[in-house]
Each structure stands twice: as structure tokens, then as C-alpha cells.
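Structure representation:
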Amino acid sequence: MGFITYVIRMPEAGDKKKAITEAVRALANQHSAEITGISANDEMTLAEMYEKRLSEWDATDARKEAEALWAES
């Protein structure tokens, strides 16, 4: 099992946003994938900003903890 994260800069038009969201959900369902989280923000950039504020030890420890969680899935 694995995870993948995308950040998509969505168009301004609501109908286009809706079409992209529906297409991603349909594709995931078609291939037996599960969407486990959704955010309307750029969470990858936010996570990178958080990581910059951590000590190297804290960042390494957080990566190890996350890897352990992924291994359990």
C-alpha cells in the first residue's frame, strides 16, 4: 500500500473545480483507490514551512514516525 499527494492549482470557475474534483474521485473509485484526505489548501507547502521551523532532530523523528504509520497501513 502506498500514498501519493498532489497539489492542483484549481481554476477560478466553480464548474471547472467541480469537474476536476468529480473526475479525481471517479478515477480513484474506478481503480479501487481510497481518498483518505482532502484539503482546499496547499498542505505540502504548509508542511514544508513547518519542517523548516523544526530542528533537524525533530524533522528526522517526525519522518520516522510517519514511515512507521505508513508501514502499518
Q: What stands out?
A: Residues 14-30 form the longest helix (17 residues). DSSP finds three helices and no strands in the chain. The chain has a mean pLDDT of 90. Residues 41-73 form one domain.
